[in-house]
From TrEMBL, chain A:
Record family assignment: Belongs to the ERD2 family.
Protein name: ER lumen protein-retaining receptor
Superkingdom to which the source organism belongs: Eukaryota
Coiled-coil regions, chain positions: none
Keywords assigned by UniProt, alphabetized: Endoplasmic reticulum, ER-Golgi transport, Membrane, Protein transport, Receptor, Transmembrane, Transmembrane helix, Transport
GO cellular component annotations of the record: endoplasmic reticulum membrane
Topology versus the membrane: Multi-pass membrane protein
Length: 212, 10
C-alpha cells in the first residue's frame, strides 16, 4: 500500500458513494447509464471471484464486498426502484461491441491460460472501456448534471492514481503488470476529454453542456 | 506468457 494506491481506492469509493447519494437524494437515475453500471457489475464479479480462493487482507476483502454490493444496488435503483426516471432512449450504446472483442482479447493476451486468470484479464480489459456507454449517453444528451460530473471525475481519477501507484511500485518493489498498466492507460485516456471539460467548466461553477 | 501475478489490487 502506498499513498497513490490509497488515494486511488478512496477516489473509487467516493465515486460510488457520490453516485448513490445523487440517486437516493434526487430519487432519480436521470443521466446515468445503466449499461455502464451493468458492465461495472460484470467487472467486479469477474475480478473478485478470488474472494473465494485467496485471502489478502481485511481491507482488500471489505473493499471488494463493498464494490460488488453497491454496484448491484445501483443496478437495482436504475432498473427497478427508480426505473421511471431512467433514460433508456439515450442509453443506446451497443455493449456487445465491447464484450465480444474484450472477451476475445482476454483469451489471447493473458498472463496464464487458466480459467481464473482469463476471467481476471477479461475484467481488467472490460473495466478500461466500461465507462463508454456513460460517456456516449452524455454526448447524446449533450449535458451532464454537476453531480454526475463529480462522479465521473472521481471515477476517472481512480485509475489515473493507480497509474502513479504502478510507477511507484515499479521503482520501489520491482512490481510490473503489463496487462493492468496498458488497460489502465487506455482507461485513463478515455477520460481525458471529460477531465478537460470538468476543469474548464465544472470547477468554474458551470455545468457540462456540449454544443448540439 | 508471464507468470500470473498475485492480485492484491482492486
Amino acid at each position: 500500500m502506498n499513498i497513490f494506491r490509497l488515494c486511488g481506492d478512496m477516489s473509487h469509493l467516493a465515486a460510488i458513494i457520490i453516485l448513490l447519494l445523487k440517486m437516493w437524494k434526487t430519487r432519480s437515475v436521470a443521466g446515468i447509464s445503466g449499461k455502464s453500471q451493468i458492465l461495472f457489475a460484470t467487472v467486479f464479479t469477474a475480478r473478485y471471484l478470488d474472494l473465494f480462493t485467496s485471502f489478502i487482507s481485511i481491507y482488500n476483502t471489505c473493499m471488494k464486498v463493498f464494490f460488488i454490493g453497491t454496484v448491484y444496488f445501483t443496478i437495482y435503483l436504475i432498473y427497478m426502484k427508480f426505473k421511471a426516471t431512467y433514460d433508456s432512449n439515450h442509453d443506446s450504446f451497443r455493449v456487445e461491441f465491447l464484450i465480444v472483442p474484450v472477451g476475445g482479447l482476454a483469451f489471447l493476451v493473458n498472463h496464464e491460460f487458466a480459467p481464473l486468470e482469463i476471467i481476471w484479464t477479461f475484467s481488467i480489459y472490460l473495466e478500461s472501456v466500461a465507462i463508454l456507454p456513460q460517456l456516449f449517453m452524455i454526448s447524446k444528451t449533450g449535458e451532464a448534471e454537476t453531480i454526475t460530473s463529480h462522479y465521473l471525475f472521481a471515477l476517472g481519477s481512480y485509475r489515473a492514481l493507480y497509474l502513479c501507484n504502478w510507477i511507484y511500485r515499479y521503482y520501489a518493489e520491482g512490481f510490473f503488470d503489463l496487462i493492468a498498466v496498458v488497460a489502465g492507460v487506455v482507461q485513463t485516456i478515455l477520460y481525458c476529454d471529460f477531465f478537460y471539460l470538468y476543469i474548464t467548466k465544472v470547477m468554474k461553477g458551470k455545468k457540462i453542456s456540449l454544443p448540439a | 506468457g508471464d507468470d500470473a501475478v498475485p492480485k492484491d489490487e482492486l
